[in-house]
Design brief:
about 180 residues; mainly alpha; 7 helices; about 70% helix; elongated
Amino acid sequence: MKKRVLHRDHSDLGLLALRLGTGAVLAAHGAQKLFGWFGGGGLEGTAQAMESMGFKPGRQSALAAGLGEAGGGLLIALGLATPAAGAAAAGTMAGAASVHAPNGFFSTSGGLEHPGYLGWSAAALGLTGAGRYSLDHVTGHRLDRTWMVPAAFVASGIAAACVIRRRAAALAQAAPAEADEAQDS
């Protein structure tokens, strides 16, 4: 009689590792924005930076970015409400990537590599689900229903598109004023 060899599926462990790493990085970046932890500017410093990048009003933009990163990251790490968490973090990172896109891809030139990768990873986790080692699994997937995936990603996509479009309009409006100031100097 032949012994049956059990194949161990390690995908749940891989999802746990990816969730913890991605979630921790996102949460740390959000904590920089919200609380000034880890060398961040806190809400006031981030609000000023957001205004200078064309995200207006700066305080609300800073709060939204901080919550998208910190909240989305924490929920991703825990594996709780994973579709909404992944979509929220991905949408937030789309806004960040739009700032860096003019500098190309690689982060060494200020490009979108880092926010793009975080957003892509968050989206992949939101689409895939958290796996067996998660609070979604423990709670019987009450906050991780099939219908929540498209709903969360459509809502996040619309919100991200609106934020990016609004920023582009603010930058376009500011460009002639800046050109006039430079000409007067």
